[in-house]
Give the backbone structure.
Amino acid sequence: METTLIILKPDAVQRGLMGRIITRFEDKGLQIVGAKLMQISPELAATHYKDHNGKPFYNGLVGFMTSSPVLVMAVRGIGAITICRGMMGATFGSKAAAGTIRGDFGVSNSFNLIHGSDSPEAAARELSLFFKAGEVLDFARAGERWIYDSSSGKAE
Ligand code: IDP
Ligand code: MG
């Protein structure tokens, strides 16, 4: 099982798209194991996006991410990092394919609704930035045996 950090960005919250985006992850069979509405501080935004420091869009990105509340989520499943990135679509809303979150709900390149960790290392780092110990929960879902095929002894 992998756990990834998803952020529903200020545009998603302000546009009332949280429910529809969360529904996509739940419909897919992914498990929400952490969630909170929060306002990101400039310091946290800078740490989270440190790899983009110095790029032309960096100041705008930090300004955007701190401008209004976001919903941060820990999302779990086998291959969750890659699955969530695929569901998000390409970075720019103008280029993201139909059927993806960015492709279906937006047209902007910077206001692109959602962040998702892009590797296991990034997921571990980012989850620890946004969630304290005990805020990401381990719990069994009632329908788990119908989400994954465990007949071989290994969930797949
Ligand atoms: P990602 O969110 O798809 O992983 P990154 O390249 O990591 O994309 O960029 C982080 C965020 O910075 C993007 O989601 C987007 O909000 C913003 N961003 C990236 N490139 C540009 C750009 O060229 N112009 C404006 N904003 C950008
Ligand atoms: Mg990225």
